What we know:
Elements: E1 5-10, H1 13-24, E2 27-32, E3 36-40, E4 46-51, E5 63-66, H2 70-82, E6 91-92, E7 96-102, E8 106-111
Parallel strand pairs: 1-4, 5-8
Antiparallel strand pairs: 2-3, 3-4, 6-7, 7-8
Domain VOC: 2-112
Organism: Paenibacillus sepulcri
Protein name: VOC family protein
Amino acid sequence: MKIKHLNLTVTNVSTARTFLETYFGMTCGGSRGNSFAALFDDDGFVLTLMKGEEVRYPKTFHIGFPQENEEQVNAINQRLKEDGFDVKPPQQAHGYTFYVEAPGGFTVEVLC
Length: 112
């Protein structure tokens, strides 16, 4: 059994959607303005975004996008940095990893 769906409450559906499409290759299968979007990955996972007024995830909450190798992690990190996101360089921890605060009020981990 594997998890195939997750819903995130976000402060801005449009910017969160664009972020996930741009940096992580998710594809929007449908949306309702800035109130809802359904995003899909290439493995059939469905990530829905719903607008909320107040978004307060626990400090350690995050979603992860595993990559195949360190080069891919470095490339995403560099692209985010060039586009103005506040990201620290990847480091070796429980994997080769870094975190970024995504538009909409949630954290993303990129790792291999």
